[in-house]
Amino acid sequence: MIRPKTDKEIEVMRQGGQLLGQILASLAKEVEPGVTPKDISKIAASKIEKADLQAVLLGYEGFSDVMCISTNDAIVHGLPNKTPFKKGDVVKLDLTVAYKGLVVDSALTVIAGEEPAGDKKRLLEGTKRSLEAGIAAIRGDGTRVGDIASAVQEVLDEYKLGIIRDLVGHGIGEHIHEEPNVPNYGVAGTGPILPAGATICVEPMATLGGWQISVAKDKWTINVADGSLGAHFEHTVLVTDKGAEILTLV
Q: Among 16, 63, 116, 176, which lies 20 to 30 A Cα-Cα from 105?
C-alpha cells in the first residue's frame, strides 16, 4: 500500500533531504586519486553526526558502514574498502539517512581526478538525464509508475546504455524500502498509481554493456556481470498535486 505522507512528515523529509544533499555534494568533491572509499565513508560518518542525522545503512541487514561506495563495474551496494581510487575511476556514492525518524536517500556518480569524456561522459550524462526525465514524468496525483519507468528507459535507450533490470527505485519514508517498486524500464500508463503525498526514490542504474548483475564475495557489492562500467543517480522525490518536488536537491 502506498501511504501519502502528512504535511508534517513531508516537512521533516524536506529538511532531512536538504542536509543529505549537502553532505553528498561535499563528499563528491573528496573523490580523488589516492583517496580510499573508507576515507570517504569516515568523512560521511562525521558529517552525519554533526548534522544530527542517523546513518540508516549502518547495521542494516548486517551492512557494516554508513554508506555505499561502488567503483567502476560495481554498480551499487559497494562496501567501502581501503583500495585507493585511481585516476579515471567511475565512483558511485549512495547515502541513506534518517532525520527525526524519516528516511531519505540519494546517489550520484563522479570520476576520480578527471572530467568525463568519451564513453564515460555518455554513461554519466545519459544516466543523470534519465533521472531528470523520470522525475519530469511525474505529473502529480494519479501519475503511474510506468510513466516514470518509460521516461527513464527512453533516455537510457537514446544514449545506448544497458539498463539494470533486477534493481529498482522504491517508496521511502518510514522505512528505506516501501511500496511501490519503481523500475527503470516499462510502459507509460501502466503500474501502480501514485497519490499526492507519496515519496519515492527514482534511481536509474545504467552500464556501458549489458544489464545482468552478480554479487561480489563480500556478499554486498553488486557488479555488472560483463565487467562494464556502471553509473547510478538517485533522488528522493515527493509527488505533489500537479507535479513533483525533489527533496534531496541542493
A: 116
Q: How far apart are the C-alpha atoms of 47 and 50, rounded to whole Å?
A: 5
- DSSP structural state of residue 209: S
Convert the pLDDT of each residue in 51-67 to its tens digit: 999 999 999 999 999 99
Report residue 187 CA to chain centroid gap: 22
In whole angstroms, what is the distance from residue 172 CA to residue 13 CA? 10
CA end-to-end distance (rounded Å), the chain: 30
User: Which residues lie across from 237 on neighbouring strands?
Assistant: 200, 246
Band of the pLDDT at 1, cuts 50, 70, 90? confident
Could you give the residue ranges of the DSSP H alpha helices within the chain?
Answer: 7-28, 37-50, 118-136, 145-158
Do 214 and 223 touch, CB atoms closer than 8 A?
yes
State the cell numbers at 10.
Answer: 513531508
